[in-house]
Amino acid sequence: MAGEPIVTAAALVIGDEILSGRTRDRNIDYIAGHLTRIGIRLKEVRVVADDEAAIVAAVNELRARHTYLFTTGGIGPTHDDITADAVAKALGVAIDIDARALELLQAYFKKRGVEPTPARLRMARIPHGAKLIRNAISVAPGFMLANVIVLAGVPEVMQVMLDDVTPLLATGSKLLTATIWLDCAEGEVADLFATHQQTFPDVAMGCYPSFSEGRVSTQLVLRSTDSARLAAARQDLEVKLKACGFL
Amino acid sequence: MAGEPIVTAAALVIGDEILSGRTRDRNIDYIAGHLTRIGIRLKEVRVVADDEAAIVAAVNELRARHTYLFTTGGIGPTHDDITADAVAKALGVAIDIDARALELLQAYFKKRGVEPTPARLRMARIPHGAKLIRNAISVAPGFMLANVIVLAGVPEVMQVMLDDVTPLLATGSKLLTATIWLDCAEGEVADLFATHQQTFPDVAMGCYPSFSEGRVSTQLVLRSTDSARLAAARQDLEVKLKACGFL
């Protein structure tokens, strides 16, 4: 809607295992879809190694540039989990065992008969001044510090944390989408589609080919925050496509 | 092996459709695995929108920092395909219809009875001085310009292009991996594993939890370019794990 602010975000995926190809990231796609639905534009994503300097540099660059920065990964109990400390360093705040997180973890460990080892208690290390983000699966919390939202890397845990933090987020105008599927190669409609873009310069347009079972198809995608403009652009495109025998 | 160089790379995924959650990226994981196998370290990945300024900035930052930069997406026939022009701009070289690419495309179009429309011929736009990368699926080539390797976004096409360019790449020492699977939570082995890291500071170690069908398991991953050190670190870790009843 006109007048609604544009809220932007970046995502930072932290983990050697993604960069080595050992683990396939399942969080980027989930975060992208979730943010689009609630009216936050994901503008860029980075994947960096478990390397403090790389994390600190990326956190500071991305948090300055967007309304929110979401990080995933590196908040577990093992020595390669350095995200909380790196985020504290990036924001210049102290980090220590957090009384609220400690209480949550101790209650959870007690109930399950698990020993609160120093490694496990590392998961209660939270930068000073952060809000905790609830982890409904395995208790060890994420946190939000200024505009940086620190989530787990395990997709199921990341997802419940994202649900928990969502009500705290400012959201803006939602990007609406219209998609038209065609049974032809994108090259066949490219000129028509380029002309259509010129007719509706305020509507973002993308063309996506796919190959499946030896057949080629094309999706024309229109995006706008203005539902009336989107409907007009879609209708006009359908007329053009029908006139040329594509629909 | 000692003495072999370390060759690093970055990947740049270009496309609004990934950032909106419309399309799930399938290239990062594939490129990560491929580069690891051939002895190139993928150090960072970025995803940016179909936005010239964003592409140019990312290309220049990443190509300066690594031996190679691989890009995916944005080289099709439609108006939102701006990667070739953005890469030419980033590297400060001219771009035009390339005679070699034009010949490939015209032969292909002729054989298939497809009209060589201006949009389709956009796919022959290649920056001056670039090597063409063969596309064994749909002919329209990728290219390599200086250390920037421009690949298609459609995964099947990206994969054949990556195979084609691989013999041209300098490769370095391969990162070897040993993985130990445990039927316990990562918190249980975290202290033991941190101690092990101190014993073998030259071997990179990561711990990856997973949840499946209500059961928790943990993978301990050791990484080194030195096979003897890796074997020693693995053997010593297995001894420690057995002594504590984890194996």
Short description:
In chain A, strand 7 (139-145) and strand 8 (148-151) form a beta hairpin. Chain A is built from 9 helices and 11 strands. Chain A is of the alpha/beta class and 247 residues long.
How would you portray this structure in words?
Two copies of one chain form a homodimer. Chain A has nine helices and eleven strands. With 247 residues, chain A is of the alpha/beta class. Chain A has a six-stranded mixed beta sheet with strand order 2-1-3-8-7-6, with helices on both faces. In chain A, strand 6 and strand 7 (139-145) form a beta hairpin. The mean pLDDT of chain A is 95.
What order do the helices and strands come in, and which of them pair?
The structure is a homodimer of 247-residue chains.
Chain A lengths: L7 E7 L1 H4 L7 H12 L2 E8 L3 H14 L2 E5 L10 H9 L3 E3 L1 H14 L5 H4 L3 E3 L3 E5 L3 E7 L2 E4 L3 H11 L10 E7 L3 H14 L4 E9 L2 E10 L2 H17 L4
Parallel strand pairs in A: 1-2, 1-3, 3-8
Antiparallel strand pairs in A: 4-5, 6-7, 7-8, 9-11, 10-11
